[in-house]
Amino acid sequence: MSEGVAQVFTVTRRLRFADCDPAGIAFYPRLLEHLNGVVEDWCADALDYPFREMHLVRGRGMPTVALSIRFASPAQLGDRISWHLRVGRLGRSSLTLSVSAVGPDGQDILQAEPTLVHTDFSKEQPKSEPFPDTVRERIEPFLIT
Predict the structure, then answer these.
(1) Backbone φ/ψ region at 132: left (φ over 0), alpha (ψ -120 to 50), beta
(2) Which of 3, 39, 44, 65 has the fewest CB within 10 Å, making it most exposed?
(3) 85 - beta bridge partners?
(4) Sheet strands side by side (includes 94-102)
(5) What whole-number distance in Å separates Cα of residue 142 and Cα of residue 61?
(6) Beta strand pairing status for 119-120 and 60-61?
(7) Residue whose C-alpha is closest to residue 116's, from 35, 3, 1, 27
(8) Which run of H or E residues covers position 139?
């Protein structure tokens, strides 16, 4: 792994009517769904390990086992939110992400640190499993050093 600045995976998502409460402000559980969608996009687009392949072909998954989140300011209906993902910690079979969401005026919406565990679901009892070497190699550039 090379030393230096971590690569950042960025995706922009519009806050839709279905994501908001009656006042037009983002409903926090929907922001968590957006967060999961960002992780899913990262796996597909940056790691070449899409959820479809991971779950349906390989019998694997990366469930969230811990989540720390801080909501900084509200997001509103129609906002285009930029999500930025880096890796704060990379273990043998788990990682902790560093994810921030930024609103259209540059205001911080939230910061989150989900911990995910690469898991083998193909057996009777799910069990953590090391990341495949090719996936680990694709994760490493996102690691904050």
Answers:
(1) beta
(2) 3
(3) 9, 99
(4) 9-14, 80-90, 94-102, 108-117, 64-71
(5) 20
(6) antiparallel
(7) 35
(8) helix 133-139
Interatomic CA distance for residues 52 and 73, integer angstroms: 33
Dump pLDDT digits (tens) for 29-69.
999 999 999 999 999 999 999 999 999 999 999 999 999 99
Structure tokens at 57: 């072909």
Q: Which fold has domain 9-142?
A: Thiol Ester Dehydrase; Chain A (3.10.129)
Angle at Cα 83 formed by Cα 89 and Cα 98, nearest 5°? 15
Cβ(88)–Cβ(66) below 8 Å = no
Cβ–Cβ < 8 Å for 139, 4: no
Render pLDDT for 60-76 as a digit per residue (tens, 0 to 9): 999 999 999 999 999 99
Look up the pTM and report it. 0.93
